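Reviewer 2 asked us to include a model.

Predict the structure of this chain.
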Amino acid sequence: CDWSSDVCSSDLADNGGLINYLIKLFVFLEILVIYCLLCITFKLNNKSCLMKVFVTGGTGYIGSHTVVELQQNGFDVVIVDNLSNSNIAVLDGIEKITGIRPEFEKIDLTEADKVEDFFVRHKDIVAVIHFAALKAVGESVQKPLEYYRNNLNSLMNVISSMKKTGVKNLVFSSSCTVYGQADVLPVTEQTPRKQAESPYGNTKAMCEDIMRDVAKVEKEMNLLALRYFNPIGAHPSALIGELPNGVPNNLIPYLTQTDRKSTRLNSSHSTRSRMPSSA
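Predicted model (structure tokens):
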């Protein structure tokens, strides 16, 4: 064979590609076997072999929808919420949608000892999605210390317990409020942060700074800040949605609750107007 010929070169390339493919296939099968063995081990010990994700604020608006998506994509979920702005009945809605009732514990994340105890008892957590926070801009102006104490301490307690128990992955629910009054719209990840215009926004910026500083020394930890504007809407089933306790602080639930009250009043008025006179 002429080793300089195109045919031989092509054959070698094909063989090389085949060898690489077989190597990758062997590695994949090896990983699959290990995973299956782990699953068998877990099942023998009455444990789940699903990857467990810890969702803080999981009975809240965005948290509950995230729990549904996680469960529907094969993840095991454990929720912690103090129910300060949500309702335990949300778990019923999640269960009706997915067929799975997520594990739930009522814990105040500002209490470091309880957070650490939780992580110690849930050693199979592989990732954390941290939604739990006070989040009303107007209220934060009236109660700045409460917002700083709650939002900063809860994040630091979670990261500290993650570090102690070896959990490496965190997605933090940040906010586009960290951009302040941006010079150019729409904002992107490259848009520079500006001074936040409320204590709430400042807590989000400070939490991002905490994560950035931790990431510099904890090289194995994967810390991500997810910035987004106010979402609206609800699950297509209408079994879960934005149902805050008390008077809503966001525009859309305020409007929808106002509209519901107006509809009930109008319906009641129409009913009364159709009632026959007693005369």
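Residues 6-44 form the longest helix (39 residues). DSSP finds eight helices and six strands in the chain. We have added this to the supplementary material.
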